[in-house]
Structure formats: C-alpha cells, structure tokens
Design brief:
The structure is a homodimer. Chain A is of the alpha+beta class. Chain A has two domains: about 5-150, 60s Ribosomal Protein L30, Chain: A; about 155-320, PurM-like C-terminal domain (Phosphoribosyl-aminoimidazole Synthetase, Chain A, domain 2, Alpha-Beta Complex), CATH 3.90.650. In chain A, about 35% of the residues lie in helices and about 25% in strands. In chain A, strands 9-11-8-12-10-13-14 form a seven-stranded mixed sheet. At the A-B interface, helix 1, strand 1, strand 2, strand 5 and helix 4 of A face helix 1, strand 1, strand 2, strand 5 and helix 4 of B.
C-alpha cells in the first residue's frame, strides 16, 4: 500500500491495517493499543474517559438526523461504551467557503440539542473556513470527556479479554440493525422509503444498565463496518462467536434496501445501536433493561472456545461463517 | 450574511461575528462565553482544562514544520495558555483518498515527536477517508486535556477583566512576530527565503514562568489574526492598550515578505509566540524568564484607562491606532 484508499476508512480489514501498521507505529503507546472507543486515563486520583471523532457524513441532512446530530451522538456514545457518563463535549468545525448560514445553524442546534438532552454541553470549539473546493460542505469533530459509572469495572476490550475463560459470555444487541447505513443509501440513490437512521445518544440506556447492577465486560456501538466489524474485533480478542441469525432484528425496509443494492445488513452502519458482551448470569437482566428502550433488543449469541471467527447459525441448524467487512462501498457514512 | 465567507475563519472581526452571533447562540453556555483558549471545567474535585483545534494548513510541509507539528503545538499551546500542563492529546484525521502513505507517516511522526518532547502522548484517535476531491489532502483535529499549574490562579480572560483597575498591567511578547504566516506566504509564492515558522510547543516556557512564581493574568498564543487580534481582544475586555512599536521584534525576513506582498506583521500568524498580561510588579521577572527562551522577548506595552482600542507609539512619540484584522488574505494558515 503506497497511498490511503477509501477502504482505509471503512471500518473493516483495511482500516485495521492502516491503524495498526501506520498510526499505532507513529503514536506507539499502551493506552492507544487498548483499542477502546475512548481512552481510559489517570487524572488526579480519578479515571477520566477521553474520546474523539470526526464526521464527514454525506448527505448532511438525512431521514432521522443530520451531521450535527451524529457528531454529538458519536462522541457521547464512545464515552458511554466505556461504561462512563459523558460530561463535556468540544466541537471543531471545518466549513467550506459559501456554506449556507441557515444550514450551519440548523446543524449546530441539532448538535446542541442532543448534547442538552444527554445532560452535557459544548464547552470549547474551533472554526476553520477553507476555500471553495477544499472541503465538501462541512466536517465536524467532537471530542468528549466523561467519568466512569463504576470506577472499578469499566467496559473494555481488556476486561473482555481477561474475563474468566470458564464463564459463559453472552452477546446482546440493543436493537435492529442497519438503519443508519440503509437510510443514507436510500437518500443517496433517491429511493422513496420509510427508513430513518437509528442515530441516537446511548448514555441513558447505559446508565440504566449500570443502575440495574449490570457490568458489561465490553460494549461497542456498531458504526462503520456494522455489527460484523464489532463481532470480528471481539472474536480476534477472545476466540469464536456464534450468532443465531433469527435473533438479529432487521427491519423489512433495511432488508429491502440490502436486496435492492446488494448489501449485507450485518455490515451496514448504525449510529444508535450497540453490542454488549455480558456474563451469562447478568444477561437476562441486561436484556430486560435493553427492551425497555427497544423491543427489538435480543441476546444474539455467545463466545465459543472451539472455533475462531464469527459463525452464523440459522433456525434450520445450518451454519456459515461471516466474512470480516472489506473494501468501502459506503464512504462518508458518518 | 447568508453564507460563510473565508473571512469568517481569519481570526478577525468576521470570525468574531460568526462565533458570537451563530455558534454561541446555538451552544449557549457560560463556559463557552468565557472565550478562553480552552475550557476550565470541574472534574471531581479538580479543575480540568479541555481544548480542541482543527488544522487545515496548506502547504502541509513548510519551512520549520508541517501540519502534524502545528496540530500538536496548537492544542498543547491552548492548554499552556490557560496556565495549565498538557496531559493527553487526541488525534482525528480526515484524509483524502489517494493521499501518500509516506507523507501520512511523516506528518504523524512529527505530531508524535512534539507530543513526546512536551511529555505527553496521543491517547485516542479517529480516521476518516473521503473520496478524491472531498477534502484537500489531510485535515487534522487535536483535542487536549490538562491540569492547572496553580489551581487558584488560572490565566484567563475573566481574571484579566476583573484584576484591580488601580494596578498597572504590562503586556509582554515572547518573541519576534509573523514568522509562521510569512513562511507560509513565502512558500506559497515560491519566494526563496531564510524564513522559518516559529511553530513550537509553549508548555515549557509557561511552566518556567509558574516555577519562577509568576502568575500571568492572561496569556494567548498569537495565531490567526496575529498579535493584532490578541491585543484587540484584550482591549475590548479591559480598555485601551498602548504598544511601543520599537519593542515589538520583527525579523528582517518577515519585514521583507510584508513589504513585498503588502502585509502587516502585526496581523501575521504565529504558532509559537505568545502574549502575556502581567501585573507590573511581576513583569521584570517574567521578562527574565521569557528571555531565557528567546532573546527577542520584550515588554511591549501596557493597558491604559484613558482611551479605547490599540494604539501604537513610535520612538519619535507619534501615535497611531492599529486596526482590528478584517477580511482573510491568508486562508489555511493553520
């Protein structure tokens, strides 16, 4: 590889290669290599969660949201996925000369409203304007800071990796998949559809899980690369994962877009749907909490020691392996 | 104004209008309105400094630095300017499809090396790749987290505003001005020159000031809009500022570029030069510390109660008012 390809931003194998071979090499340190959604840091005597995300979504307005809403949800969710409460957000804008002020206001108010509903606000920012043609419309970066809901038990790849190998670990999914990716696809292809992005802040459902005494080993919002990318990442960390296909909810509208355009729902991005690894004894309680927020939530599978990769099992008992997402068919999904 | 103009990113009057009339309106909160380089936040029982900056510099490599170096210095300096020690950095990349991997590595290593020298590291990140034409090369966002060097006395606009009106406040400058802007100008116009950007991390000099017992009322690195933008911002907060022109160091090379291309050195961006507001009794000590780092440092002026705006006085005693930077002659300086 001599140059960066679109696939390097797709959330799949090529992105992992870029991150591991180039970025981690330059920024080499233990915290980064833990590969969580956010960094878990020492600050004074407390743990601090710190995260960053840039957003280049296109179109900037779509059914169920806009780039401002994703920008707020993205960093809020990255913090929530560590088992933490988001406290503060930053917002840095790169705007193309000539961008309509009315659209800018609409986007920023959307970002601010998500932040407000999640109980936090934008405390610092930056504004750059570039000449026409130097960026396409608007790009937004949000970074966020939060504190752990349970200092002794953050949700993390490390905890998932080191959990007792004798204990069964269940995999839960908080809702139906693929709505964000399918909504953007539909809007790009001018398809009439009832689809709407699942874009939403996940801090409230995560706090409810912790309030109910559940301590997920790991959590991940299934953004770029979709459910498939999360399952493959976890399978690399802890061996095989078996998923019951019929437990994974996919709406008829998402199915329709997938069939029409040749996509796999497992690979479509979500912006308000997450995957949880929970010990078996907590799994029924966790499902009960998830279902209070979305009836489509389910226990979709479990970790297995006897094979590697991600295996799908259907109701007839037949099994197939799910490929890791590769390439980039959907650039600028977030 | 119906759309965003290039001038809205220039660090002058138009940018202030965009920030005050649009961005602050959407994100309305007290912390943001304090208009510091970073936000001063409560975290547990400690104060936490949080800052963000996006970088769109063009060219990406220039005499004295590259976009990676500015990206690291930018956030480190924003934290240092609050009287704080930078602790952690994030790095979010937006890369154009086809960007050369060798350039990416060079930029990231440059960023990492500045961070390392400043005693911190990049702990979280994000990578987005956009199709050819959707962004020009590479844009980098860094956000940063730090802790105050003196919890009771942060450097801030608020402290500058509320300082005893009877006490004289001196204005110091840490070095000669305009080198970053002039170096980028020279390279864009293909001028042969000895110019090199002043791009540098300022955390060490700030820590030395605090170690020497100095507690600046406010500090600001003179980036977009240059020295002029900082002086005007402070004059709005606390009345008039008088500057002795001959105390402001400008190198012959910067002078040359300014004369050739019709720029004002006061308005050219710096990336490693900062302005300090210090009470008169601390000013000589502060100067001594600054001179250990750069002999061009000087006490350049003071706040005056009897006029508004920024007034320049030359050695012959004649006085003229310095205009606030307006328009945008130098897009993508950082």
């Amino acid at each position: 590889m001599k140059s960066v390809s679109l696939a390097c931003g797709g959330g799949g194998a090529e992105m992992n290669a870029l991150i591991n071979d180039v970025i981690f090499k330059c920024f080499d340190n233990e915290i980064l290599r833990q590969s969580n959604d956010g960094a878990l840091l020492d600050f004074d005597s407390k743990k601090l969660v710190f995260t960053t995300d840039s957003f280049v979504a296109n179109p900037i307005f779509f059914a169920g949201g806009d780039i401002g809403k994703i920008a707020a949800c993205g960093s809020i969710n990255d913090i929530a996925m560590m088992g933490a409460k988001p406290l503060y957000l930053s917002c840095a804008l790169i705007i193309e000369e000539g961008f309509e002020l009315a659209n800018l206001e609409r986007i920023l108010c959307s970002l601010a409203s998500v932040a407000k509903d999640a109980g936090l606000c934008v405390v610092c920012g930056d504004t750059k304007v570039v000449p026409k043609g130097a960026c396409d419309g608007i790009f937004i970066n949000t970074s966020g800071v939060g504190s752990l809901l349970d200092e002794s038990l953050p949700a993390s790849i490390k905890r998932l990796k080191s959990a007792n190998p004798e204990k069964k670990i269940k995999i839960l999914l908080s809702g139906d998949i693929g709505r964000h990716g399918a909504a953007l696809l539909a809007s790009r292809h001018g398809l009439q559809s009832l689809l709407s992005s699942d874009c939403a802040a996940l801090n409230t459902v995560v706090e409810s899980l912790y309030d109910a005494g559940i301590r997920p080993l790991a959590m991940r919002d299934a953004t770029r690369g979709g459910l498939s990318a999360v399952l493959h990442e976890w399978a690399r960390v802890r061996g095989g994962i078996e998923v019951c296909e019929e437990k994974v909810a996919v709406s008829a509208e998402v199915m329709g877009v997938c069939e029409l355009l040749g996509f796999e729902a497992y690979e479509l991005a979500n912006e308000g749907t997450f995957v949880l690894a929970v010990s078996e004894d907590e799994s029924q309680n966790a499902l009960k909490v998830l279902k209070e927020f979305n009836l489509a939530a389910n226990i979709i599978g479990e970790f297995c020691a006897d094979f590697k990769g991600v295996r799908l099992k259907n109701i007839y008992g037949s099994k197939r392996f799910l490929d890791e997402p590769k390439g980039e068919l959907l650039p600028r999904i977030c």
